[in-house]
Amino acid sequence: MSDAAAKSWAVLFARLVLGLIFFMAGIWKVFVLGPTGHVHRFFLPFQHTFLPVWSLWAAGFAIPFVELIAGALVILGFQTRYALVGLGFVLAIVTFGHLLDQPLYALHEHVIPRLALVLFVFLMPRDSDRYSLDHLLRRA
Fold first, then answer.
1. What is the pTM of this model?
2. Where along the chain do its domains lie?
3. First vs last Cα of the chain: how many Å apart?
């Protein structure tokens, strides 16, 4: 197998795993827990902090949809870089929240593996992602 083919498979596997992690979380948060339930469970506990409650509602309500849509886009390899930017912001918000609650939160268990996949896929040359809709559309 050539190096180019190996890179393409590596990007595909990283993209699929990353996309599935966020897509499945989004499905659960949108369709099982519900966006309002997501706000109540994960964001309103921070209403005792300096953060305005409206910002907790805005972020907490939007994140499930960003995870669902961006996760699906990453799986398909469509508008991948834009989707990765969205997921990067989700990870930054989640990191901020965890560290606001627990300054020594173990980021290596949740955030860092996802961030590593985001960065890997984002930084690989676009031509390496041969098994994506983005690649097919660029060739057309």
1. 0.94
2. 3-139
3. 26
